[in-house]
Amino acid sequence: MEVGEEFGPWLSRQLRLANKTQAELAEELGLTRAAVSAWITKRSVPRPTVMGEIAKALGTDLGTVHTRTTDTQAGLPVTWYHRPGYQDGGRDGGNAAAFAFDADVQVLARETCQNSLDERLVHNGRPVRVRYTIHELTGEKLEAFRAAILWDELQPHYSAVSESSADQKVGRVVDAGVRDMFEKGRLILLRIDDYNASGLTGDDYDDGKFAAVVRRQLESLKSGTGAGGSYGLGKATLWATSALGIVLINSTLSVPHEGRTERRVVGRLELPWRTVGGTAYAGPAWLGRPDPETPNAEVVRSWWADEETVGRLHLTRESDEPGTSFLIVGAHDVASLDQGRASAVTDEDEEGGDDDGARDIRVMHKRLVEALSRDFWAAMTGGGTRLPLLETSVRTLRNGEVVVEEEQVDPTATQPSRTRALRAFYEGTTVDRLTESGQVALRTVPLRLPLSGGRRGTLGTHPGVLLVTEAEDKDGDPNQVHSLRGNRMTIKKAGVSGLPLGVTGFQAVLLVGHAAGETAPFADEAEEFLRAAEPPEHDRWGQTEELTLRWSHSAHHRISRLTTEVNAAVKELVVRPKRPGAEESSKLRKKLTVPRKTAAPKRGSGPAVPELVELDAEIGENKEWRITAEVKLPRADELPAMTPVVLLDVRSGGRPRLDWAELVAVEGCEVEGGVLHFAQGARKAVFRGATDPTSHPVRTELTRLALELRAGSGE
């Protein structure tokens, strides 16, 4: 049985909820005010015979007074509180944090699963379990849910947003979501439940996890040093995935609050600035019980709901295990259309401008499974004495009936080679060199950590662990390196440049920070450094503002050197020794995926300049060109800086220039501000880049590429 709250604090809150004073309660009970005050201040408790009279005065039953695990239903009802407009006339067109992410269930899976990993309860050694439930409502089920979320209170606010939707991106999304719900009579709920996690602990307003998620923006309060998140942006994906801007929350706490742990419920709505009935509202709104301690009891706070209420809100949890349930109301997956995966979209739909594909529950199910197996395969893998950190599953319902059976995500089915490599590391069965199929080779690679505060020198060398094994067809693209740190979420995926033709396909895993072992030297420092080197998407390591502020503007070069060490170690393991007379450069030219029309530069009497000699290119997942280039460096005391410029190779007219989304040094050079600076004494340099798809004037697969090296800034 759940432990109840102490009588005094519980009674004090019930009196506020009922808008009743201590003197009024004393008068109803026929006692002195001093007696009631003694209960409130915990100096005494009422006699059992008085408990029944207190229950009658509060309009509740005797059991509620004895157990004190919930509030009485008397007094202020649950309602929506809308933040008033700013007194200085300022307006917000929506929550800016939500614009950091697309309406993409795969991005949602990455961010929410990362948050659950960060909040895993570690004392019991068990994994955090995360379940995604897609639930489409129609007919009476939809009507009942709208009544449960007090839709009639929200309708005027949605109408006001719809009237001005042409001027606001958020308004257009919300307007389309409301029209879809009423015109097509459907609503998609997407619920994320985690178990064996800390839950949203803390006060409604003071510092704590609850306030960080529900009340505040850009605040990250994570439980461990190896946490994945650091910007406080990941929670915004919840609201970005809702076409109605509504997320409901039910949390079971690992640490009691107000003497309770179960069914702490609250809701948050994100809308742009609007006027309703002549009153201006700033944007967000909260669903909760009015707080009597706020002016006029207008501001609402979370409340302790009963089982019937969480059932109506589709927030029922399967056990009393700590964790949180987030319910996204009106979920949509616009990215499924952009990537051409919404097979349910017909030609007729496209002609009509319909977006049924963005709300195709079967496609959502498939894409969630894909994302979880791709980004969290390592967190779901165990071996030896190391247990998995994570278990995930996805299920899909319609009006409570199963549409797609619950699917437990199995990393060995989608990432067989990588999971084999990780298990071998955990079980101590790695080898020094690959001689047989199925073996896993291990190398250590150094990450030289800089001193903080811009000081010159090295704090220490952290030995990262590189695992290499033969690739299998189910792994996807071969010859990839997946890099991860403490929470075992894949951070970086990259190919290895300069591989000769005929190399046996492989997969490699780089473990750094706590992933390399809790006892690895400088593991804590590596976690801190690499975490600061991640952008909000947590999909790469490189130059960031935090890295510059805490270390230096050149600190990211340490990561470039790590990449160079990794590539060299991979080649040493997978490339066969060169046979006498082999012409590796000829093989590389045959391997090129992008045709080039370049002639060898004429040698003049001027200073020697670097020469582009080899180029590999492919189209990436986001329709970007991913390029690896090798530069031949002449013997010279000083080499000029060069800028790589990527152009579209067209038949006539000027060649359009594309923007770089990423440009990193691999070997023999450094990148600063998009300019290559070559290492003194090096005979070749290798760099890698990815174009910005938004700068492509036409579809990527219809283009051909040209790469030039230009002196100086490249203008």
Molecular shape: elongated
Oligomer: single chain
What is the overall pLDDT average? 85
Terminal-residue CA separation: 72 Å
Q: How many DSSP helices?
A: 21
How many distinct beta strands? 25
Helical percentage: 25-40%
Describe the structure.
The structure is a single chain. Helix content is 27%, strand content 26%. The chain is α+β, with helices and mostly antiparallel strands. Strands 1, 2, 3, 4, 5, 6, 7, 8, 9, 10, 11 and 12 form a twelve-stranded mixed β-sheet that branches. Strands 13-14-17-15-16 form a five-stranded mixed β-sheet. A hairpin with a 2-residue loop joins strand 22 and strand 23. Helix 2 (22-29) packs across helix 3 (33-40), helix 6 (105-118) packs across helix 15 and helix 8 (151-163) crosses helix 9 (169-183). Mean pLDDT is 85; it is low at 225-232, 340-354 and 581-605.
Blueprint of the fold:
Elements: H1 7-17, H2 22-29, H3 33-40, H4 48-58, H5 62-67, E1 79-84, H6 105-118, E2 128-138, H7 139-148, H8 151-163, H9 169-183, E3 186-195, H10 209-214, H11 236-240, E4 242-252, E5 264-269, E6 274-276, E7 279-290, E8 300-301, E9 303-304, H12 307-312, E10 323-331, H13 335-338, H14 347-351, H15 361-375, E11 390-398, E12 401-408, H16 411-414, H17 416-427, E13 440-450, E14 458-470, E15 480-484, E16 490-495, E17 506-511, H18 523-532, H19 545-550, H20 557-574, H21 584-591, E18 611-619, E19 625-632, E20 642-648, E21 660-667, E22 669-672, E23 675-678, E24 684-691, E25 705-711
Parallel strand pairs: 2-11, 15-17
Antiparallel strand pairs: 1-7, 2-3, 3-10, 4-5, 4-10, 5-7, 5-9, 6-7, 7-8, 11-12, 13-14, 14-17, 15-16, 18-19, 19-24, 20-25, 21-24, 22-23
Helix pairs in contact: 2-3, 6-15, 8-9
